[in-house]
User: Fold 6-phosphogluconate dehydrogenase, decarboxylating from Corynebacterium choanae.
Amino acid sequence: MLPGILTDMTSSAGMAHIGVVGLAVMGSNIARNFARNGHTVAVYNRSYDKTERLVADHGNEGTFVPAATIEEFVASLQRPRRALIMVQAGAATDAVIEQLADAMEEGDIIIDGGNALYTDTMRREAAMRARGLHFVGAGISGGEEGALHGPSIMPGGPAESYEHIGPLLESVAAVVDNTPCCTHIGPNGAGHFVKMVHNGIEYADMQVIGEAYHLLRYAAGLDCAEIAETFRKWNTGDLNSYLVEITAEVLAQVDAATGKPLVDVIVDQAGQKGTGRWTVKAALDLGIPVTGIGEAVFARALSSSVAQREQTAGTLPSGKLASPIDPADRETFVEAVRRALYASKLVAYSQGFDEIRAGSDEYDWNIDPRDLATIWRGGCIIRADFLNRITEAYTANPDLRCLLLDPYFLNEMEGLVDAWRHIVVTATELGLPVPVFASSLSYYDALRAERLPAALIQGQRDYFGAHTYRRVDREGSFHTLWSGDRSEVEA
Ligand code: 6PG
Assistant:
């Protein structure tokens, strides 16, 4: 079919391959992406002017079927109908789902492409299943550009719905090594769960990059242009990734109004919409230590604690601080920061994959970690070269209990750990905060440890609460009669 706008509802009835509801930037861009790839796309927005604007501005990119009502929209879709919701997560999503479900028929498919909380997706999937509809919670990553040119797509929901939506979604996803960055992740909430953890990793990744920048600036004394250049160089090696690439761009940007580096005129309070926080909450429930992601979420929270920071900044005593890095040692220091960044980043990914495995076990999703590493190589915000190494690690050993145990990463850690320690010590002596560098190193050391102070905690718990403990040399549970003769009894 030739590009065009089909407005005559009698001729367009049942013609659209897919429909998009919600035409803010992400929704418009993904609708355009479908149209550009030869699909006839029905488009609907609560206020019709956005729909009109989309077809007026981009109608020449493919075939759009603008609909003024949800009923018209549904009627314009081929069966089984496929409607992709791109509205704000939460109540707006529920409202659109209800409207669509009322107008749809058995076997039709609703896809939620927003950043929904996976438990909401599980609830919605069950409710739609009861009505004979398919509900697919699909994580979509890549921001505005990704939506237009090829995002990474993480669809959950019933496996059989993937037969009807898979080829369509794959045709608009990013492609790496001839493989589309889209695959069925698992039933009900699996897609949104992995998107949530993707965002958690994104938070940690952004924070470690921030910590590296902060050290280069305030420990090594580099200026923004020099740091931008450093990140540009790093982006050609192990750290090659979208986030490192854009960091160089942001740091090189000069504010037109003041002539200062843009980063110096941006208020240093990081926002968050909630996916990072959800990742940590879910990890707490699953009992998985995602310390890097947790510290990254808390670092954003601390940055935004304005009233507290106003009182504490420059007031709390620092103690005796070390002197900044001698210019003669700069080069070595910069390389050590790169290694600390790389090591902390590996820990964040390892923890994220641990959480995904735990979620998959808890909800019987059967998520294959290789799939994730594969579809995160392109399109998404955390796309990075080393995801290839993660795919290889899980291909060699699908039951890998810790990513860091893979021979490739073990070898990498061998070369990183000394510098990582040095950087955490130096930052501490200089009084510069490195919450993710430091907590990731502690986590790593805890993983390495033969003995942990948890034995003492068990003793304390037994002392005040008779919670019992197990012994290293005998089976069973034991309790010491702390307020009696302190002999041990079997519990
Ligand atoms: C993506 C992004 C995207 C968005 C997040 C993060 O994968 O395309 O993660 O989903 O940028 O909402 O936003 P916050 O930093 O505001 O939580």
Observations:
- The chain has three domains: 18-184, 196-448, 453-490.
